[in-house]
């Protein structure tokens, strides 16, 4: 029997709605595994559960950081493991929900013992990125660490830089560090359920959800964040669409252009999520229409 449930899948696939229904059906509590819902004030554009939804079901790891604070997979895994234990101690069922694959993998498998990278080296690689572009850095990664280069998406700037930093400081490719045996952040056993949709349906959901975010006040939310003096270079503004909407607030582009940019980036992110989670061999994939609470609960008890 599994100790907790994990709902994964691409953005806009219906994970949060299913988590609410499940939690109400089995007396569960939701643990957020989205990298940006942790930030206070970044609510609408991250599709954070509403106040009403959070009153219906207890949620954890939401609104735990200020916009300028960095968050990492290791920090997530530690906090999530603690939340799982607290929830189970109350006799409730933890339901981990989110699309941040690396965060979830760290919870399941732990972090590789990567070397510390000095800030000077990180700045050096970022300077090269600005001068030479991502394509040049990809070629460098293919030369020094072909295994990692083959695994990463072509546009994955952050992880390309990370792999180059690790190889530079250690003389060993990142792939060799990741091959070291790791210890899960939590010893508990998960049941992993994934929601899958056709590309056309998913893209339509993304388009509709972005429009609804605007109707709910996304532009006004970003206007308020900027009005409070929050710098758009802060970590929380890396959430998809927030830079685009900030440009609308500043009068640099119109709303339609911002939505087009956010839709493009969300589609790309969804593609990366689908690729990431498809590598997991123990995820039970369901169409959202078939993912009824009783079906998932049966799997939880059997797993």
Note the topology.
Elements: E1 4-9, H1 15-26, E2 28-32, H2 51-56, E3 59-60, H3 73-89, E4 93-97, H4 101-109, H5 119-132, H6 134-144, H7 146-151, H8 157-170, H9 174-178, E5 190-195, H10 199-216, H11 218-227, H12 242-249, H13 255-278, E6 283-286, H14 293-302
Parallel strand pairs: 1-4, 1-5, 2-3, 2-4, 5-6
What would you note in describing this structure?
The N and C termini lie close together (4 Å). It is globular, with a radius of gyration of 20 Å. The protein has 303 residues and is of the alpha/beta class. The protein is built from 14 helices and 6 strands. The protein has a 6-stranded parallel beta sheet, sandwiched between helices. Helix 2 (51-56) links the parallel strand 2 and strand 3 (59-60). It folds into 2 domains: 4-111 and 182-302, Rossmann fold; 119-178, Histone, subunit A, CATH 1.10.20. The model has no long low-confidence stretch (mean pLDDT 92). The longest helix has 24 residues, at 255-278.
